[in-house]
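INTERNAL AUDIT FORM
Audit reference: QA-55
Scope: verify that the stored structure record matches its stored sequence.
Auditor: D.O.
Record contents follow.
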Amino acid sequence: MKRTEILELVKAYYKEQFAEKEFEAGKTTIPFAGRIFDEEELVTLVDSSLDFWLTTGRYAEEFEAKFAEFMGQKNCMLVNSGSSANLIALSTLTSPLLKGNRLKKGDEVLTVAAGFPTTVNPIVQNGLTPVFVDVEVDTFNIKVSAIENALSDKTKAIMLAHTLGNPFNLEVVKSIADKYGLYLVEDCCDAVGSKYNGQLVGTFGNLATTSFYPAHHITMGEGGSVLTSNPLLRRIATSLRDWGRDCYCDPGCDNTCGRRFKGQYGDLPLGYDHKYVYSHVGYNLKVTDMQAAVGVAQLKKLPLFIEARKENFKKLYKGLKQYEEYLMLPQATPNSDPSWFGFPFNVRENDKFTRKDLAEYLEDHKILTRQLFAGNITKQPAYKDKEINYRISGSLENTDYIMRNTIFIGVYPGIDDVRMNYILFVFDQFFNSIH
């Protein structure tokens, strides 16, 4: 059987197996996020599997080139998750190849406690000290007026996520990083396509990261990437991803440099095989080519996905604005154009209902909700471990407010007009019930 015949059958299978089911109000669940795909993803996935090239291959190479171009960066290194991307990005800054500019154990990295753990965990995992700065309650991003007070002579980097797709104030953060000679790592896992001053996020810092988990803007099932335009940082990140090896040959390739048996490395014998020289204590965090194949198909849809998220955000904002007596609606950071991951809002403290009451009502009506991830990560069980060192700069008053009062619902492209109208109807029902 020819490959083309197999792929035609895959298209037919998609139409039969994944036919869209009719939405039933109150019965069909509306997730906060989800994968959106069609026959193209299945075709590329099966096409890749027919090669039986099970590690990184031609689809990964294609995706890395096209995604780097989309993101406005010179280099994209695929990894197996957004969490791994954050680990690789921060670990890159500890490389001995950076000489006197490397991060060392005990150095401090500014971040926030209101977010997802894997923005913070790589700091701890590298023996560095996270310094937590408070956030704003309406943008959910770092309070830039508090950054300089958080600096010490140990501060060497800033690592922040663009919270739920809303860019943090890059003008101020970048200027502080430049002023004090700090590295800047942008966690864009929730923010692919977001812009600040007309420029894509992920292009302001030394390194950026993305995630391709099913909840995110595009998916590979699992997957992520590290982005940079700096050749040395690219070399280090790639080494850390690929076992820590010094060699840059692609899998299955030998002697790309023409000096495979000619170098002197460490205390190894002269001419030791360069493919087995390790310049970093690394990992194996590559993706399979089957994952990348799905990503190639998804990437074609990304511009439409971004616009759908923006439109859904606008519809929710317009529909919920009438309830601002009870809800503090999200605000885009000034000069930004977010590609929203979700629609976050604060339930103002009142005598009629709590965040829990509203969340349970939405969930009972099949509208899924989420809290803003860790809330205040310093209050999480893992961070109560006395072996973990961190510093809090000033008050985390707003972080605690978000921990108590914030939830978010979905804006992903699977929410069509029928589902959107139902969501707003349920909110109307809830607020009618409390009066």
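Auditor finding: record pair retrieved intact. The mean pLDDT is 96.
Action required: none
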